[in-house]
Structures are given as C-alpha cells and as structure tokens.
Predict the 3D structure of the following.
Amino acid sequence: MWDIAASLHSAPAPNKSRGGSGRCSLRRRAPVQEIGARRNISTIFELKQVSARAARKTAAALTVYAADEKKSEFWALRELDETKTKALGIEIRTNSVKAALIDTSNGSFMSAGAATKLTDLSQKSLEDALQRLVEKFDWKGLVGCSITKAVSRGLGVDTPSFSQMDREVGLILTKMLPKNTVITMIHTEAGGYNELAYGDHQFEGSLVLICTLGRAFGAVLYKDGRRVRNTGINTALACEWEAELEALEKQYPAAFPKTKSGSWGGVPLPAKEGEAGYEAWKALEALVVKYMRDISNYVKPESVLLMPTGTATVQTEVFEALLKEVQAAALTFDVTPKVQLCGMAGGTLVKGAAVGAVIEQRVQEGINEFRKAVDSNVIMLQRLTPLQLRAVFDIFDKNADGMVTSAELADGLKIIGLEVTSEKMEDLLCMGKVDKEDCGAAIDFAHFNLWWQSRIKQGPVTQITSQEEWQDILEESRDKLVVLQVGFTFCRPCNAFAPKYEKLAQEYEESRFVKINGNENRSTISLCRDELAVERTPTFVFFRGGHEVHRHTGTNVDTFNEAMSVALS
C-alpha cells in the first residue's frame, strides 16, 4: 500500500527545535533588495578561456559533437520536428550563470558555451546576466533554466515543493526573458532528464528515482521516462535534509571540508574506525541511508540513480563509498531497487535544462493540442465524440498519411495521461485478427475508432481526471453502486491490481467501476485530499445515491468481494 498523506496533504510544520529555517514550511520571502546602481555582473567570457581548473571541470561542456552524433532513443525526443530540437540550456547558481546552445536530438553542443559571474543574486543582476547570454547566442527560441534551491530562495520563493518552485521561479525568469519561451526546473530534474535522454546507465523497470545529494537533497521520480509530479517526496520526506546536515556539521565541525575562502567544501570524507573523522563519516552514512530508505519505501522505485551536486561533485571517493552503503541497505528496503551512481560532469545541467525544456514543452503542446481538438480544458476520455476522436487521431498521425504507428500511439496516449501496456497495445494492433502474425505495425482511424469505442468508451472501468467528471458520474449513477479506486500514477500495487480490477468490473457489471489517480492534476489532488480524505492507496470507496457507504484499502480480492457482497445486499 502507498501512504498518500505525503503526496496529497500539506507539508509538515517546520521543526523549530533545530533553530533552522524550517524548510518543510511553505512561505514566500521578499526578493533580495538591490544594493547600489552598478551592474554586479562580469563580462561574458567563453568557457574555454576561463582558468585551467574551471576548464578541467567544464571539459565535457566544451565538446562540440559531430553532426552525425547518435540520436537519443528517449521516447519524448522521437519524431520531433528538427526545428523543435534546439534549445538554449542555462545553469543558474548563486554566483554564476552558464549557457550553451544544445541540439537535444543527440545532446551535442552546437557551439562553445558561455558564462558570466554574479556578485549578488538580485533580480536586476540575474536579469542582466540572462539577457546578455541570450543576446550572445542571438537566441529567440526555447530556453531551459536549471536552478538550485538557494537560487529559488534568493529570488523570494522558499518552498520544498519542486513543482511550485518550477512554477513560481519560472514566472520570474519569464519576465526577465520576455522574447523567449522559458521553462524552469530544479537541478535534480535537469540532471535526471540528461541521464534519461543521453546516459548509458541500464535501468531496471519503468520507475526510476533520481536523487541529487550535496548540501541540499532533491528527489524526482520518472515513470516510463516522464516526470511524475505531485509525489510529495520533497515536500514531506526530503525537506529536513539541510537542517539535519547542518546539525551534523555543528556536531563534527572539523570533519567538514572548507574552501580557501572558508565556505562550505563538501561532506565528511570516508574514515575507518580509530581514524579521525570516523564518527562523522558513520553519522553521514546513517543519514544518507535513512533518507534513501524512507523515500524508496514510499515510491518503491525499480532503479535509483545517485548524483552528487555542487561542491560534492568532486568528492568521488565519498560517493563511491556511499553507493556501496546504500546498495547494501537497499536489500532491506520494501522493494530492492537497482542503485547506481552518476557523476555530474561539466555541462550536464546545461544539457539537462535544454532537453528538459524540449520535453516539457512537447508534453504541454500535446495536452494543448488535445484540448483544442476536443474543444475543452477538461479532458474526458470516455466522452469523446467520433469527430473529437478523429481530431485526436490526426494529432497522433505526424506525417498525415492516415496511419498511426504503435510508437506514435504510445507516445501520444502517454502525453494525454492514458497509459497503454504492451498487452493493450497488442490488443489494439491485433483487434479483429485471428492470427497474431497478421497484426500490423500501424493502424488507420477506422481500426483505432473500433478499439476506442469497445475498450475505452465502453470499457468496464471509467478512468477520470477531474472533479467535474466525478460529480457527473455520481449524478448519472444514483441508482447504481459506484466503486471508485483511488491510486497514484506511480503506485505499483495499484498498477498491478489493474487487470484484476477490470475483471471485477466485468463480474459486477450492474455496478459502475471508476478509477482516478490522486496526483494527476490539481483537480484530482483536491478531490482525493480534501473531499475524499484518502490517506493510503489503493483505496476503494463505494457510493450509493451519491453517498459513501464503504471504504477499504489494499489489493486483497477476497476483501473486495466481501465488501461488494455487503454493499449490494
């Protein structure tokens, strides 16, 4: 079962006993005040002209790949028009801004990158930096900006929620670059998108957890290569990391490295028993394992990728030792994931910001196209008319030849939130065929329409994505027993129970079976959290005459059948 509280309920109150900043709270600061009228920004310089140390750190970013670089196989980059694969990736930190023009189809740098220093994080200084970088590349297209938590706070947005951080900082950066389309993401997201699109790691399963670890801790979950939003990981589970690491530093000050200027230089180094720093190292190990266990037990990923970030990126020895510790501890997690380590090479976040922007834009454009096709902001899949369905099919048909391939269908349906398993895709391609060898690689609209009407519109389970749909179902089914399954898009027990739920719906055909993902959008969050007060998933809630008559949690079929027997009697 999944504990839904972390995802759908408000963040925990700040822990005042630590005397820290209470990062779990949601508040908004006033932006940093500008001091003086001078431009606190250095001249833009080519990355290849910076110091030898900086050049070594950014060596990967300087590589300009050949035009025939292997194209990414990532689903969101398939079939993209060439004009939509280019983006300016920007990495924003508290003291610098780096940028490069990226061909996201293969992850290549189209020219040498550029950077500028920031002597403060006032909005004026950052706006000057961004505009000068955009002018340097003479770029009027899509811009992806990767930010840190510290940058977000400096701009007045202090929240543990990555989604809210992306949204609110994004509005600020969009005003700074009014001539560009700007998409903003936290460094964890940028690193994750870069790895998923261009990395060479082999992931187990479809649920991948990306964790960045350094002075801050961030976690982002991806399902089938698409970011899962509204998970609550950072709001309720990862939000105390900075306060706990700060407490550790106060307890073992000598074990934490410092830079020449006296600022934070990373986490404690590995030490053996009897050596100086051993207690600090074991305390760090325990802290990392605790966070990885709590988060992994919550979302149950099949693969985990650890990424050092910030100053910690150069602490190779530290993270190799932490990897072994987490891999050993993972054997005791609820579900044992494949845990791997990924170094944050120079240019990673710039590339990640660019490809993340292209992917997020494609998803949003797909949703907007879909809404335009059905002439509604609320997508009700099972209520599409034949005319609306034809418009949707035409969106999937990229080359307008009247045929849609399985890949185009899978990608298009994924964008609008309809997951199609390999079994369902085979059912779609083979519908009406006696021999599977006769199944085609593509289908026309007549075939698609037949499948949609029989499997989706008239299917045994109604999938909904809004409160409006739910209210309509309650109203039109007042004379029936209505069964609602509440899950998460990433809830593995929910997904595993899906075939059984469909069979149960066929067995109890006089009842109405409905399914909703509580983290799908703001409307479903409000319905599941505020109206239904669901705390764990999967939860099954029974209604008759518009009123709740029963609820239970878990995937036990006997329990479900017993509840149905009582409700129907």
The CA atoms of residues 37 and 124 lie 10 Å apart. The chain is about 40% helix and 20% strand. The first strand starts at residue 2 and ends at 3.
